[in-house]
Amino acid sequence: FDRKDGKLVLAHVLFAFAALLVGGIAGLLQGLVRGGMVTLPANIGYYELLTAHGVLMALIFTTYFIIGFLYSGVSHTLGGQLRPAARKLGWTGYLVMSAGTVLGVIVILSGKASVLYTFYAPMKASPWFYVALALVVVGSWLSGFGVFCQYRRWRREHRGKLSPLFAFMAVVTLLMWQIATIGVAAEVVVQLIPWSFGWVDSVNVVLSRTLFWYFGHPLVYFWLLPAYICWYVVIPKIIGGKIFSDALARLAFILFLLFSIPVGFHHQLMEPGIGGFWKFLQVVLTFMVIIPSLMTAFSMFATFEMNGRAKGAKGLFGWLRVLPWKDVRFFAPFMGMLVFIPAGAGGIVNASNQMNAVVHNTLWVTGHFHLTVATSVALTFFGIAYWLIPTVTGRVLTPRLNRLGIIQTLVWCVGMLFMSGPMHIVGLMGSPRRTAYTTYGDHPDAILWMPYHVAMAIGGTILFAGVLLIVYNVIALMRAPKGETVYPIGEVAEAAEATPRYLERWSVWIGIAVALILFAYTIPLIDMFRGVTSPGFVTW
Ligand code: HAS
C-alpha cells in the first residue's frame, strides 16, 4: 500500500477511534445518569453529555472512518496510488474537519451547545457550534472532491472500461453525501448562524427541521453504504468465495442514490405544517429505499451459499458451517449483518405512519439506531480496522489480536442486547427518549420504566468495556509485527451476468435523483417559505 496514502488513511482512522473513546465516556455517564445510578456534579449537564455522545459517535467517528476507508479503497483500486491533487484535497478536508471538530467539542463541553446531535431550532446553541458544524461539512466536501478527482482521472485513462466495484460504490456514497449535505449547510448557514449571532430575531422552525431531515436520512445511508461496500466487496474475499453479482451490487447502490434523499418526512410524520399527501409520498419512497437492502440481504445469502457449495457443504444450512467463524475480519461484520435483520425490521415499523405514532420520540427509536448504526455499521467498521490498519502500516494481524477482536465483538453484542432490547420494550411502554433521570413525581408508569432504564445502563457499561477494548486493539494493531497484509478485494463469480454500462452513466442517475427530490420537496418548501401550514395539516 502506498506509504503516503497510508498516512492519510491512518490519520482518519485514528481520529475516528479517538472520537469513539471520548463519545463513549459521555455515553457511559449519560446512561448511568438516566438509570438513576449516578448524579452529575452541578456544573455538568445531562444534555451536554448527550450532545457530546451523539455528535462524537454518530457524526465524527463515522465520518472520519468512512472517509479514511473510502480513500484507502480508491487508492488501492484506482491505480494503486492517489493523485497528488486527490491527496492534497484529502489532507485539506481532514484539517478543515478537524478544526471544526475541535471547536465543536470545546463549545459542547463548555456547556454552550446542549442542543443534541440534531440541533433542532428553536433550541439555540452558541453560534460557534454552528460554525464548527459548517467546517465539518465543508471539510467533508473537500475530501469528497478528492475521491471524484481520482475517479475522473482513472476513467479518462481507461475509456470504455467499467470502474472497479469499490470505486463505483465510493463515488455513489459521496455523491449522495454531497447532494444531501446541501440541506444541512443551508440550514446552518442561512438560518442558524444568523439567528444565533442575533442578526435576525426569529427562525422558521418547520423549515429548519425539514432542511435537517432532507440531510438526516441520507446521513444514515452515508453510514450504511461503506458497511455495504465491505459486505459486497471485502467479505467474499475473506471467506474465500466470490461476489455474487457485480451488476446487482451496482444497481443496489444506484437505488440508494435515487431513494435515500426524498424521504426525510418519515422523521416528521408527527409534525404539523407538512401536508398529508407529501408525507404519504415520502413514505412510499421510503419503502422504495428498503428494496436495495433486501437485494443486499439476498446477495449476501447467495455469496455465502455459493461459497459453501463450492467447498462441498450439503443441505439447507450446510454453508454456515464452512464460514470462517474464528476470523474477526469476517465475524465482526457478520454479527453486524445478523443484527441488521431485526434492526431493518424496526426501521420498517418506524416508517409506517400509524406505528410511527406509537414509537415516535420514545426510546424505541433510540433502540433502533443503536442496532443500525451502533451495531451493524460500527461492528463492520471494527471488522475493517483489523485488516485496514495492518495494510496501511505494513503490519500483520496476530492470532492474539484476532482473539481479542472476537471477544470485543461478543462484548459489543451482549452490551447491545442489554441496552437496545430494553430500549425497544420500554419505548413501546411510552418511555420518552432524550430525557434525564426523572420519575415524573413517582408516576406509576414511570416507576414501571425504571428497571428497563437500569438494564440500559448495565448494557451501556458493558458497551463501554467494548469501547475500551476496541481502542486497545487499535493501539495494539499499530504495534503489531511488521509484514505485508493484502487489501482484500473480492472477485466476481464466473456465473454472474455482465454488468450493463448504463449503470455508470452518472448524468442520468443524478438527473433522476434531482427530479425525485424536486418532486418530493418543492411544494412543501414553498408552503414553508410562505409561512402557511399545508391544508393536509388540518385533515391529519
Ligand atoms: Fe432508521 C430513525 C426508518 C435504516 C438510523 N434511523 C432513525 C434514527 C437513526 C436511524 C439514527 O421511518 C433516529 C434519528 C433521530 O435522532 O431522530 N430506518 C428506517 C428504515 C430503514 C432504516 C425504513 N436507520 C436505518 C439505518 C440506520 C438508521 C441503516 C443507520 C445506519 N428510521 C426510520 C424512521 C425513523 C428512523 C421512520 C424515524 C423514527 C421517528 O419517529 O423518529 C431501512 O433502510 C431498513 C432496511 C433494512 C432491511 C434489513 C436488510 C437486512 C440485511 C442483513 C442480511 C443478513 C445476512 C446475514 C445476510 C430491510 C441486509 C444472515 C445470516 C444468518 C445466519 C441469518
TrEMBL record:
<protein>
    <submittedName>
        <fullName>B(O/a)3-type cytochrome-c oxidase subunit 1</fullName>
    </submittedName>
</protein>
<keyword id="KW-0408">Iron</keyword>
<feature type="transmembrane region" description="Helical">
    <location>
        <begin position="506"/>
        <end position="526"/>
    </location>
</feature>
<feature type="transmembrane region" description="Helical">
    <location>
        <begin position="277"/>
        <end position="304"/>
    </location>
</feature>
<feature type="transmembrane region" description="Helical">
    <location>
        <begin position="330"/>
        <end position="349"/>
    </location>
</feature>
<feature type="transmembrane region" description="Helical">
    <location>
        <begin position="129"/>
        <end position="151"/>
    </location>
</feature>
<dbReference type="InterPro" id="IPR033943">
    <property type="entry name" value="Ba3-like_Oxidase_I"/>
</dbReference>
<keyword id="KW-1133">Transmembrane helix</keyword>
<feature type="transmembrane region" description="Helical">
    <location>
        <begin position="213"/>
        <end position="235"/>
    </location>
</feature>
<keyword id="KW-0472">Membrane</keyword>
<feature type="transmembrane region" description="Helical">
    <location>
        <begin position="8"/>
        <end position="29"/>
    </location>
</feature>
<dbReference type="InterPro" id="IPR036927">
    <property type="entry name" value="Cyt_c_oxase-like_su1_sf"/>
</dbReference>
<feature type="transmembrane region" description="Helical">
    <location>
        <begin position="369"/>
        <end position="389"/>
    </location>
</feature>
<dbReference type="GO" id="GO:0020037">
    <property type="term" value="F:heme binding"/>
</dbReference>
<keyword id="KW-0679">Respiratory chain</keyword>
<keyword id="KW-0479">Metal-binding</keyword>
<dbReference type="Pfam" id="PF00115">
    <property type="entry name" value="COX1"/>
</dbReference>
<feature type="transmembrane region" description="Helical">
    <location>
        <begin position="247"/>
        <end position="265"/>
    </location>
</feature>
<feature type="transmembrane region" description="Helical">
    <location>
        <begin position="91"/>
        <end position="109"/>
    </location>
</feature>
<feature type="transmembrane region" description="Helical">
    <location>
        <begin position="450"/>
        <end position="472"/>
    </location>
</feature>
<feature type="transmembrane region" description="Helical">
    <location>
        <begin position="410"/>
        <end position="430"/>
    </location>
</feature>
<keyword id="KW-0349">Heme</keyword>
<keyword id="KW-0813">Transport</keyword>
<keyword id="KW-0812">Transmembrane</keyword>
<dbReference type="GO" id="GO:0016020">
    <property type="term" value="C:membrane"/>
</dbReference>
<keyword id="KW-0249">Electron transport</keyword>
<dbReference type="GO" id="GO:0009060">
    <property type="term" value="P:aerobic respiration"/>
</dbReference>
<feature type="transmembrane region" description="Helical">
    <location>
        <begin position="49"/>
        <end position="71"/>
    </location>
</feature>
<dbReference type="InterPro" id="IPR023615">
    <property type="entry name" value="Cyt_c_Oxase_su1_BS"/>
</dbReference>
<dbReference type="InterPro" id="IPR000883">
    <property type="entry name" value="Cyt_C_Oxase_1"/>
</dbReference>
<comment type="similarity">
    <text>Belongs to the heme-copper respiratory oxidase family.</text>
</comment>
<feature type="domain" description="Cytochrome oxidase subunit I profile">
    <location>
        <begin position="1"/>
        <end position="475"/>
    </location>
</feature>
<dbReference type="InterPro" id="IPR023616">
    <property type="entry name" value="Cyt_c_oxase-like_su1_dom"/>
</dbReference>
<feature type="transmembrane region" description="Helical">
    <location>
        <begin position="163"/>
        <end position="193"/>
    </location>
</feature>
<dbReference type="GO" id="GO:0004129">
    <property type="term" value="F:cytochrome-c oxidase activity"/>
</dbReference>
